[in-house]
Amino acid sequence: MKKTMILITMALVLFSITGCSFEQDSIDIGEIEEGVDYFIFDNAGISLPLTSFKSLNPLYVDNLSYYHFSKLIFEGLFEYDQNLQPIPRLASTYTISEDGKTVEISLRQDISWHNGEKLNADDVVFTVGIMKQAGADSLYGKLVRNGASTGDLSIISARALSEYKVEISFKEATGNMLDMLTFPIIPEVKGSDALVMENYIPIGTGPYKFVEHVKFKEVHLESNEHYREGEPQISYIVGKIYDDRELILTAFETGKLDMAPTIGVDWDKYEHNERISIYEYVSGDHEILAFNHMSGLFSMEGADSLKKAIFYGIDRQSIIDKVYLQHGTQVDTPVHPSSYLASLSSERYGFNVENAKDILQSAGFVDSDNDGIREDSEGYPIILRVLVNNSSELKMKTAEMLKINLKEIGLSVEFVHPSGEISEEIAEDMIRIIVEGDFDISLLQWEQSTIPAFRTYLGIDSINNFAQYSDENLEEILRRMETVWDENSKIQTYEEFQVYYVNTIPYGSLLFRNKALLVDSGISGDLEPTYYNLYNGLEKCYLTMSTN
C-alpha cells in the first residue's frame, strides 16, 4: 500500500511541476529500487517559454524565443559546438574548393523528416532557393546576406550532384562559409507552402515533431521516435506564449514553466532553491568603451598612450564582481571568449595602477599643479566627458566605478547623459550625441552575432563606427578575416587581428556579459545552454524525481 501511494503522489507532483496542458494516457515511472536516490519518468513532458511570434516558419524567425525553440524542430547542415566552431549536423563530410567559393557536401544518409521521408540533396537545393525569396529581416535572412548595404545573398546557387551530395556556391570566398550553412533545412514537399506565414506546418529533422499550435497560447511538440540519435526521453514539450520576459520569469517561479532565461544579473537569489538549477553561459553582449577619435583628447599626440593607461587603470574584475555580481567575462578584444578563434596571447591589460601612471608620465601627461588631475602638453587638465545611458542601472554603476578608477591615475571624468524619458527617446538622443561627437568616451553594448560583423563598427566607412576610428592597416586585416576560409589561415589571421587590436585599442573591450538559464531541478542530463542555442542538449535530458 505504501508503494502504491508513492507512485500516485509522484505522478500528481509531476503534473503540478510541469503545468502542461498536453494530454497523455499515462506516466510510467518504473520500479522503485531500494538505495536509489532518484528515478526517471517516461512518457512525461515539460513546458518552455515563448513570446509572441509572427510565424512558425523558420525562414521568418525574428523572435529569439522562437529561434531557440525552433532548433528542437529544425536542423541545419552545420551547427556550432561549444567553441563556436561550425561542425556537421545534417552534413556528413564536406570539401571546400581551392578558390574558397564552393563547398561540396555529402549528406548523412540516416536522416528522416518528421513525415517519414528521407532527407536528400533536392531538399537542400530547394531550401537554398527558398532562402533567396524569403525576407532579409529574419535572423536567417540576415545570416546569408552580405550586409544591409547591398542586401545581396552571399549564397548564389545550389545543385544536387547525387541523391546525397550537393554543391553550394558563394558569390565570393568567405571565411564564414560554414557559419552561413547553419540555417534550417526544410523539405521540398512543402512546395509553395514553404513561404507562407499563416498556418505554417513545421516539418523538420530535429528531435521533436510539431503537433499543434494554439494561437497566442501554446505550441505543442512530441518526441521524434525516429530521431537518428535515439528518441528523446522527454516525451513532449509545450511552448507557452507570454507577453514579456517578466511574465515568463514569474511563471517559472510559480511552477508553470520548467525553464526560463534570467533577467539582469541577480540570479544568485535562486542558489539555495532546491527546485532550481542554474546554467550560466557567456552571452553575445559585449560591453565596450567607444573612444571618440575625432575629439581633441583622442586625436592628439599621445592618444594611444592615454588609451592604454586608461585600460591599465580600470579594475574590470572589480566591475564584474560588484556591478555584474561576478556574472561577466573580462576580455581585451571583441572576439567571443568561448570561440576557438580567441587568442590567449592578446590578453594584456590587467589592472595595474602603477603601470598606468608610468605610461601617462612617460607620454607627458603630468600633474604640474598637484591638484590630482594631469594636464596635456598644452597645460589643460584632462577631463574625460563620458556618455552614458543614465536609465541603465548597470551602465551607471559601471560608469561610477570607471570614474573612481581613473581619478586614482589622475584623470577626471564628467558624465554626459542623453535626454528623454522613454527608451526610444533615450536611444535617439544617444545617437544624436554620438553623431555630433559631443563626448570623449561612450559606454556602449554591442550585441554580437555568431558571425561577428567586426567591420560594422570598425570599418572606415561604416555608419556605425561610433569611435570614428580610421586605420588602413586594420581595414586590410578585416578584409582578410572576411575572406580567408582555410582553418589554419583563419586562426592565424584572427590572431593577427587580436594582437593589432590590443596594441591600437580602437574600442576598449570591457567584458562579455554572462547570462543564465533557470531550469527545474527535475530535468537532468547533458543540457548545455549557449547564447546561440539555449536548449542545446535537451534531447539528451530526462525527468527525474528524488526518492528521498
What's the architecture of the largest domain in CATH terms? Roll
The best one-word shape is: globular
Largest sheet: 7 strands, mixed
**Number of beta strands:** 20
The residue ranges in which pLDDT falls below 50 over 5 or more consecutive positions are 1-30, 147-151
* Total domains: 3
Q: Give helix % range.
A: 25-40%
- CATH superfamily assignment of the largest domain? Dipeptide-binding Protein, Domain 3
CATH fold description of the largest domain:
Dipeptide-binding Protein, domain 3
Briefly note the structural class of the backbone. alpha+beta
Residue fraction in strands: 15-25%
- Average predicted confidence as pLDDT: 89
Count the DSSP helices.
14
Strands, helices and their partners?
Layout: H1 2-18, E1 38-41, E2 45-51, H2 64-70, E3 78-80, E4 86-88, E5 91-96, E6 102-107, H3 121-133, H4 139-143, E7 155-162, E8 165-170, E9 208-214, E10 218-223, E11 236-242, H5 245-253, E12 259-261, E13 276-291, H6 296-299, H7 303-313, H8 316-322, E14 328-330, H9 353-362, E15 383-387, H10 393-408, E16 412-416, H11 423-436, E17 441-447, H12 454-458, H13 472-483, H14 487-504, E18 507-520, E19 523-524, E20 542-546
Parallel strand pairs: 2-11, 15-16, 15-17
Antiparallel strand pairs: 1-20, 3-4, 5-6, 6-8, 7-8, 9-10, 10-11, 12-18, 13-17, 13-18, 14-18, 19-20
Helix pairs in contact: 7-9, 13-14
